[in-house]
Amino acid sequence: MAKSKTADVLLTPIFSNNPIALQVLGICSALAVTSKMETTIIMAVAVTLVTGFSSAAVAAIRDWIPNSIRIIVQMTIIASLVIMVDQFLKAYLPDVAKTMSVFVGLIITNCIVMGRAEGYAMKNGAWMSFLDGIGNGLGYSVLLVIIGVFRELFGSGKIYGISILPSVNEGGWYVPNGLLLLPP
């Protein structure tokens, strides 16, 4: 029974209750960072990790959080994790950090992250909250990758710089639709 609940908490947000497709959360960042697969994957991993770890942290201290300041505490935990992600990117992927600086900071206010902290982590234990956060992050990631593949492929004819649809400029047949690569 416990295994079934664990799998349900982890997999439901990916397949049957996707945060972007069904809950319509996190749409702004889904459109903003998906013009290139590199930024898409980094944002997907960042949101997944922040959602999982922030949910676990909120759940671990939920009994000691006064109701009057619970949102402030949640945002502080989320902001701390986002700062760690931002510092990691600056240290190990400086070019990507420059490209994504504004969007990484906006993870703090992402409805998925805040919603899971408030809606699930405040009522459940740390492990299940972690799994719920990871599941919702993976659900977000699946749609982010699908959108990113579509935008990069039809916007440039390439995925990760590898030519999939040979462009007219390269002697091929495809005329890239550059509008798909522009941020909203």
Contiguous helical run count: 7
The overall number of domains is 1
Shape by Cα distribution: elongated
Largest sheet: spatial strand order: 1-2
What does the oligomeric state look like here?
single chain
* Proportion of beta-strand residues: under 5%
Helix percentage range: 55-70%
How would you characterize the largest beta sheet? 2 strands, antiparallel
Cα radius of gyration in angstroms: 18 Å
Mean pLDDT equals 87
Unreliable stretches covering 5 or more consecutive residues? none
Helix- and strand-based class? mainly alpha
Helix and strand sequence:
HHHHHHHEE
Q: Tell me the span between the first and last alpha carbons.
A: 45 Å
Q: How many beta-strand runs?
A: 2
Features:
single chain, 184 residues, 7 helices, elongated
Can you give a write-up of this model?
The chain has 184 residues and is mostly helical. The chain has one domain (2-181). The chain contains 7 helices and 2 strands; from the N terminus they run H-H-H-H-H-H-H-E-E. The mean pLDDT is 87.
Topology:
Layout (H helix, E strand, L loop, with lengths): L1 H14 L11 H6 L4 H25 L8 H23 L1 H12 L5 H11 L4 H31 L1 E2 L2 E2 L21
Antiparallel strand pairs: 1-2
Helix pairs in contact: 1-7, 3-4, 3-5, 3-6, 3-7, 4-5, 4-6, 6-7
Summarize this structure briefly:
The protein is mostly helical. It has one domain.
